[in-house]
Amino acid sequence: MDAPIDLRPVFRAHWPSYGPDWDRAIELGIDVAQLERNLALTPEQRLLNHQRARQAVQLLRAGMKRDR
Question: What is the pTM assigned to this prediction?
């Protein structure tokens, strides 16, 4: 399996520093692009996305159990 791509240089080049916490998040490998996309959504939109993701995981788990 290939090593994951290090996106930290991309994040540093694309986004300005919003302070030490932001810089630390990038250093820890947090996807700040996804963070900004989520923060642009309303709380209701974020909850809906979360519910959809949970449903997808449940369907995947059910499928894995069925295939065993």
Answer: 0.61
